[in-house]
Amino acid sequence: MSVLVVGSVAFDSVETPFGKHRDLLGGSASYFSISASYFTKVRMVAVVGKDFPRKHIDLFKKYGIDTGGLQVVHGKTFRWEGRYEHDMNAAETIATHLNVFRTFSPDIPRRYRDTRNIFLANIDPDIQFDILKQVRSPRLVASDTMNFWIDNKKRELTRLLKSKKIDLFLLNDAEARQFSGEVNLLRAARYILSLGPKMVIIKKGEHGSLFFSRKTAFSVPGLPLETICDPTGAGDTFAGGVMGYLSRFKNIDDAKVKRAIIYGSIMASFNVGRFSLKGLLGLNKQLIDKRYKSFKELTRF
Amino acid sequence: MSVLVVGSVAFDSVETPFGKHRDLLGGSASYFSISASYFTKVRMVAVVGKDFPRKHIDLFKKYGIDTGGLQVVHGKTFRWEGRYEHDMNAAETIATHLNVFRTFSPDIPRRYRDTRNIFLANIDPDIQFDILKQVRSPRLVASDTMNFWIDNKKRELTRLLKSKKIDLFLLNDAEARQFSGEVNLLRAARYILSLGPKMVIIKKGEHGSLFFSRKTAFSVPGLPLETICDPTGAGDTFAGGVMGYLSRFKNIDDAKVKRAIIYGSIMASFNVGRFSLKGLLGLNKQLIDKRYKSFKELTRF
């Protein structure tokens, strides 16, 4: 089964203690798609401007990503500029130029509408809601969000979660605290599950992630890495691994979601080692399986 | 085999979002001893003043702790006053009154000197060094430290680690970063191992802990708990579980240390649920084993 992602494709300018790079390929849909492409067929819905170079579209195609839903419109591509200090857990946004993303109103291509697995990257919850009206009968819907939407569209985000259309909600620890009003992450997760989603994943950066369903609690650490070069896109890369892996199965249960979270963590661990999504390029089953074994060794007792 | 702890016994006054309590039984040796007592015989070396109530000594005895090394001297018992904000990861120290602890120069009782397992709680590294001259042939020596000693006695602490007498060094993530000058915890651990210790455990509060030896990396998450009432003593309680468990075995290997870390995490999870060391009282094998199973379920994939 394939997976459909709706999100951003962007140019990022990023400064970390390991360097400063301008006009990198970025955006939630880019990270998600390349990551998920190691597991399944990916359909991408996003928008870029006329300034978006052909080579990036070629890169997506090289990874088997269906870019039929990537609109190229008049104007400039979304640009984000950010900086990370030494702890790498939070980006400081220096500038955001939404450009063509400002009026992004995704029209899901007709041939995508029967996609069974959907990932709604962190875009306006009203748009997320609207997308779910366009798809026919998804089997698994996951959505992400960010502090901006919790600040400005909490009611709309809550409506989305209460719609019972979101199976899996992903957000980071700070967002979980902000959204739920609970400092304690277990309470925050319970609150989120009480709204409607069947499952929630709280991403904790270098500390790994937590997964909660009605029946299961699961915690996976971050893989201790000597160099975390650029954490940009780690959350979307993680989601790509999770959704990519799950898209391979007809039936999903908590055990499969746990393994999917390991694959998500593996992909994120590759991603943060290099700038932009360079860490995700040129991987293969052997490299991914080797890191799966590292996770086993790291956590087994 | 028994375990010898050298540390503090204190009165704590603690304020957390869950309440404010004065004159609680505290101190590193208290937490360590009660925790370790569930696994092995404990010998305690510490000092208190004449104001230290009989009931606390009776409590130690009730848990089978040998208090023959607990000196009662003229003066007042060590007092600490602190406060935790909502995130509970760092205490704000309001007041420290060392009192009789200021001149604490532990004289290890003759009958303790053949103890095979030693825990040097976070006291002056010069005193830690001196204690190791008094014990005959320990099998396993673990030591802890704190930011105060890294700030003020880094050279002495480094000498201790370079002495090759410390098998296992425990410290928290902030201390590991401060001591090593490395933001990255894997690099921090490598630096510490390069000095001499065979093993290092980096405690990360609610995020669990990391263990590194020459051959092994191990990461265990914190058990997601709905209520973290008072984190005071969690690190010493953790060490008590680790050292208590290991003291039961003739031979130690990385697999046993991993399991010991789970027991340490279990004891800490009980401890943080109530003020002072109340969460550690009245436990039994069934309750501990149940939580061991929870850790398995939480981490297995």
Characterise this structure:
The structure is a homodimer of 301-residue chains. In chain A, 36% of the residues lie in helices and 25% in strands. Chain A is of the alpha/beta class and 301 residues long. Chain A has one domain (3-299): Ribokinase (UDP-N-acetylmuramoyl-L-alanine:D-glutamate ligase, 3-Layer(aba) Sandwich). In chain A, the strands form two sheets. Chain A has a nine-stranded mixed beta sheet with strand order 5-4-1-8-9-10-11-12-13, with helices on both faces. In chain A, a hairpin with a 5-residue loop joins strand 11 and strand 12. Chain A is globular and about 50 Å long. At the A-B interface, helix 7, strand 13, helix 9 and helix 10 of A face helix 7, strand 13, helix 9 and helix 10 of B.
Compact description:
The structure is a homodimer of 301-residue chains. By secondary structure, chain A is of the alpha/beta class. In chain A, 36% of the residues lie in helices and 25% in strands.
Key attributes of the depicted protein:
alpha/beta; 36% helix; 25% strand; homodimer; 9-stranded mixed β-sheet; UDP-N-acetylmuramoyl-L-alanine:D-glutamate ligase; 301 residues
